[in-house]
Amino acid sequence: MSNCDLLIRNCRVVSASGITERDVAIDRGRILALTSDSSSMSPTAKIDAKGMALLPGLIDSHVHFRDPGMVYKEDFLSGSRGAAAGGTTTVFDMPTTVPIVTSAELFREKVSIVGRRSLVDFGLYGAAGVRNVGEIGKMAREGAIAFKTYTVAPPGDRTKEYEGAFVTEAGQLLQVMEAVAGSGLPHCIHAEDDSVVGYLSGRLKSEGRMDPLAHHDSRPNAAEAVSVYQSIAFSRATGARVHVVHVSTKEAVDVIRAAKAEGLPVTCETCPHYLVFTKQALEKMGSRAKYNPPARSEDDVEALWRGIADGTIDIVVSDHAPHTEEEKRMDIWGAPPGTPGVETRLPVFLAAAERRGLGVQGTVRLMSTKVAEIFGVDGRKGDIRPGMDADVALVDLKARWKVRKEDLQTAAKGTSIFDGMEAVGRVELTLLRGVVIYESGGAFAGPGTGEFIPGPKAVRSSSSP
Ligand code: NCD
Ligand code: ZN
Ligand code: ZN
């Protein structure tokens, strides 16, 4: 093993198994070896990484890159540039594009459209609703990474994005979960109870509430609690592997902790914005800080951190949900919910985690290793060890800086709620399967460097693009 394409020397490797000083050899897109003596190697290229940490490429299993259909908000090129600049080498894109991904045919089309633009490897979700239960198995075989269902009707005029992905009636949700259970893939649930949100929104609007907290009050903790409990009960009934997305409340953490103790196949995620902001952010920033579920109380934030500490919360993702500045300037009822965060996930989280005594290795588990395990791509992603894809981020963990929205890659940079926030760790270099896709200072690989990553139930012959 003396020849290799690239040798990254003198780095602190943060792998799933620990932190070690190593030289990392990369060959033909894979990790070849980790060694403390590389003197016998003759690499084609070398990088001296003294003082830097080498992290497994991060995986963001919850992004909305708006492509195809709403590329005026974002497309897979700008979205994936943000990912690369943030040390993320694999994203899983939600099905709520236009057209929404409800069939094997639409799935195939989306693979080819976004594959031309993506800088990072990508997996795609299928939407799961009552009208397309017959397509669920087909999408799994086509390579869907998981399925997504909303338990709440879409906001305002966004039915086109959500038609076929929301199920607001319990019996219908049970039916959809039976079908997803049959696929063996995770069932990602956006858990907010539709009737609770419907009743309260109606009441608050009729009372004339227009202040930003009206958004918070229309989607209280109870709306999430009821829906999370329902999906867990149905997981018990169907065997569906429920993954609760963007958990925001103490109630949800408690119910999920109990479900796990019972041995149910339940996992969950939260996002940096739920860990660093309370509902005061809504008061300060108005519609810009409107997202679903909304920012909560101090108590909820503390409960989320406890959930991270004891493993109830499995992963931290961005829920990168870009909208235009004009859209985010609308009033609190009219503005679309969602906030961009794919690029700021690591540094914002590291800064907050440091104050909680959580280190970089725990962060790598939350943002890469465990994500790969949940979604079944851990045979090639989520760790730095021989045989794995050479997806790595070289990070200066000593760097302390402040997020500046102007520097972000997302088309929605002007709306970033993280602007001005303290950040720890600067991504200096990002490699995807051994190829440099981002170098600090702003050099990016070209569109299409990323590949489609089929889910674990893909029938390989038909899914390779
Ligand atoms: C998301 C979006 O805009 O696509 N918005 C949000 O507030 N989270 C949708 C979603 O993840 O629910
Ligand atoms: Zn959601
Ligand atoms: Zn989302």
Number of domains: 2
CATH fold description of the largest domain: TIM Barrel
Task: Specify the CATH homologous superfamily of the largest domain.
Answer: Metal-dependent hydrolases
Chemical compounds bound to the protein: N-carbamoyl-L-aspartate, zinc ion
The structural class is alpha/beta
The parts where pLDDT drops under 50 for at least 5 residues are none
Please name the CATH architecture of the largest domain.
Alpha-Beta Barrel
User: Which sheet architecture does the biggest sheet show?
Assistant: 9 strands, mixed
Number of strands: 18
Radius of gyration: 21 Å
Could you tell me how far the N terminus lies from the C terminus, measured between alpha carbons in angstroms?
Answer: 32 Å
Mean pLDDT: 97
- What is the number of helical segments per DSSP (H or I, 4+ residues)? 16
Beta fraction: 15-25%
Tell me the name of the CATH class of the largest domain. Answer: Alpha Beta
Structural overview:
The protein has 465 residues and is an alpha/beta fold. It has two domains: 6-54 and 388-444, Urease, subunit C, domain 1 (Roll), CATH 2.30.40; 58-374, TIM Barrel. The chain is 34% helix and 23% strand. The chain contains 16 helices and 18 strands. The strands form three sheets. Strands 1, 2, 3, 4, 5, 15, 16, 17 and 18 form a nine-stranded mixed sheet that branches. The protein is globular, with a radius of gyration of 21 Å. 57% of the residues are buried. The model has no long low-confidence stretch (mean pLDDT 97). The chain binds N-carbamoyl-L-aspartate (NCD) and zinc ion (ZN) (2 copies). One zinc ion binds at residues 62, 64, 94, 319, 321. The site of one zinc ion has 4 residues, from loops.
